[in-house]
Design brief:
It is a single chain. This protein is of the alpha/beta class and 117 residues long. Helices cover 58% and strands 15% of the residues. The strands form two sheets. A three-stranded parallel beta sheet has the order 1-3-5. The protein has a two-stranded parallel sheet with strand order 2-4. The protein starts with a strand and ends with a helix.
Amino acid sequence: MNTVKLKVFEFIGSPLCISADDGQKIFEKIQSLLKAGNCVVISFEHITMMVSLFFNVAIGQLYSAFSEEEIRAKMSVEGLADDDMELLKKVVENAKKYYAHSEEYNLAFMVEEDDGE
């Protein structure tokens, strides 16, 4: 099994991890690497700002395609400051909860929308 280092700064061409579009690019790259049987190290070296939106799309979305065990075994991150790592942990916890019960969340959301009309 190969290990591939994905350098976020080089891949998105910016030190700012703030857009959903950039998060989607990272998600698609990680997803294809994992599906090909690779291990992935996501490097945040040279990244100066990140927001939860980016993490939700880039990392959280992986929990819709892979099991937690597979993600833990085949993926790691490096180069995150402590506060950014805490943000990523919160995003991951929320993603695990959401994707474990996504039908229930979606139904609850639809009921709330109907009530508002």
